[in-house]
Amino acid sequence: MTSNDLVVVLPGITGSTLGIRGDDGSPASENLIWAPSAGAVWKLLTGGSSILRQALPEGIGDGHPGDGVEPVALMPDVHVIPGIWTPIRGYDVLLASLEQQGYRRGTGGKPATLIPFAYDWRLSNRYNGERLKAVVEPALEQLRAQGGAYADAEVVFVCHSMGGLVARWYVERCGGAEVTRTLITLGTPWRGATDALEQLVNGVRKGIGPLSIDLTAFSRSLPSLFQLLPEFACIADPGAEGGYAKTTEVSLPNVSTAMVADAMAFHTDLQAAEAARPGSRAAHLVVGVRQPTATTVQIAGGHVTTYRGFGADDDLGDGTVPLTGAVGLGESLDTNLAVRVPEQHANLQCNQTVLDQVQEILSARPLRRRELTDTSVRAVVPDLVTAQEGLGVAFDLEPDVAGVDPSGKAVTVTVRAADGRVLATAAPSVVDGHGEASFAGLPPGTHTVTIAGSAPSSTVRPVTSTTLVWPDGVVG
């Protein structure tokens, strides 16, 4: 592959900004209703005109609600907005990496070789797969029309999280296989994720200090969130084969049975199409590993309780997508289709090892390989805190490849602002493989938290999470 191909980047759920065309005819880009805005994140979430207060019409299926909402752009990297699924980390780093490789957006009359594909993440992945077709195929025709090295250009998809489901639907169900060279997915829930089940049944409520957000009605109206439900058997049921049932084999409380059935049909239709097409195995799966991740559930009293493994077997994952959900195509968990990177779900598209892997796939030649060191970090960092309560970070270090106890290893926890400035550091002690750090007095804003070895030669693999510190007493 070369930069003569057309690379299309798809973000995950909530990873596209949304706008609405104005009554005066102004474009959606001038009337943003889901986008980062300094000092206005809480208003974005809770204000009277917040999109999160607007549940989609019942029975919307694969349609559009006709509310004038349009996708505008991919989320920038320097902001985070809490909400359903996981905090948003933007896509500037990924796009910049691709541009450095020679891919270009369409400017100066030249056809694009790089398209950031924003989509309305509220809607069905089937709907967005059809819309992807309407954008990609004309762009590819323009590129091929240049002739020469571009005459045989094909499409390469680089997809984070749910974006991989959109691209897969286009490739397998909308004729995209004929023009697609390969599909690269970063943390895509090929078989769904248990977090979606917990959120839909229990409701989605975010709380920081005295403030709270209830996104339950909105989330339960989204076809997209239902299509993130786990396809694999993950619901504890002594009467089921193997002790676990699928979502369609039990009655899920509080949610639409029809939407659950339709979501499972989405997965089975995709799997059937991929099984029937040998070329579907050209996909590259980059998956996050070694992070504490909800994998199975127990339902009692209309409530879901999550567990990290199947009994004593803890496959872990990226903190959002369990390994069982991250691996598709009927492959075993040790499939050679997957590249495993110890990282959190929301940071995969910014992880340098992942960016190196994407570059190597695109260039089809060996690049600088970063040696995987031998001690993995499992991190737990809250999505939201208030400035008054401070930020608490907990982590565990696994024994290294030789089984050596990691206790006593030097670890540094670093908190950085959105612009990269170091705000605080801590060097907690590691006892029985566990460490904790707390930070008081952090300024309000979006911050990244990195847990890594203290020395350049350290064998501890760094892991990065994102958190939002909200100013005390401020709403909107």
From TrEMBL:
Source organism: Terrabacter aeriphilus
SUPFAM superfamilies, alphabetized: alpha/beta-Hydrolases
Domain of life: Bacteria
Pfam families: LCAT (PF02450)
Protein name per its UniProtKB record: Lecithin:cholesterol acyltransferase
